[in-house]
Amino acid sequence: MTKKCRFxxxxxxxxxLSCPALWAAPAAQPLHSGSPVYNERHAAMELxxxxxAQTAFHAANNRYAASFDELTAPAANPPYLDGEWNAPRxxxxxxxxxxxxxxxxxxxxxxxxxxxxxGIRRFFIDQSGVIRSEEGKAAGxxxxxxxxxDYKEPSGTYSPPESSPGFxxxxxWRLAGxxxxxxxxxxxxxxxxxxxxxxxxxxxxxxxxxxxxxEATPAFLDRDNKRYTWPxxxxxxxxxxxxxxxKVMFIVIAEPEDPKTAGTRWLLTDASGVIRWSDTADxxxxxxxxxxxxx
Length: 295
Description:
By secondary structure, this protein is of the alpha+beta class. It is built from 8 helices and 9 strands. α3 (36-61) packs across α6.
């Protein structure tokens, strides 16, 4: 009986040779879609989104929502949250704890859908805006706070050759943890919203510049993070715009300076937590909101 010699197809060989993530031994867990580290990062970002939605809901109803159904209901016009939140989202399950006779209090948790496989850490947030985490047990109000963007970063970003076919480049990007241009601008704006909510809870007003949040003790935004170099992050410049009353409003605009990393769209967010976009510098409260992840 003869054994057939099997070879990789030319396309599989190209994929294998073009992406070091497939054949090199990684020094740390890769940050790609579906990995526990990636899911943990996304879970923390989603908690900031929930915080912004709850803040807007409280401003309109003098209480916090007791369920995701209240935040996503079409009756809100527009809803405070988009998408399905009663099902797992990128490996995590999110829950809001109902609070009876406590209109000014809320908390939400994010737990791995499949512990160890889709995520390791468990997260908690409440009206203070502080995200807390635990490993191996439920997170709560007494858990240690999560440091600003406390995530394991990949050792580097792999850029596939420009000559690669479009579908192959997309596969290589996802395997190597590549983020499309403009994604980090959205992430930064959500981070700013969460920091502003916490700042407002402590001081009774919204910060009107980065120094107010980075030089506070403790800092509401990390001032020593290599990636978050406010006010310019990943080729995008973030600017606070003047407002009439800092007690009720803040406005931040994201201006793309480097299209390769920041894309070409302008973004804006304010105390509502909604992120809006425009193809030009003509952006304001009436600009259309972005989708759930990016324009």
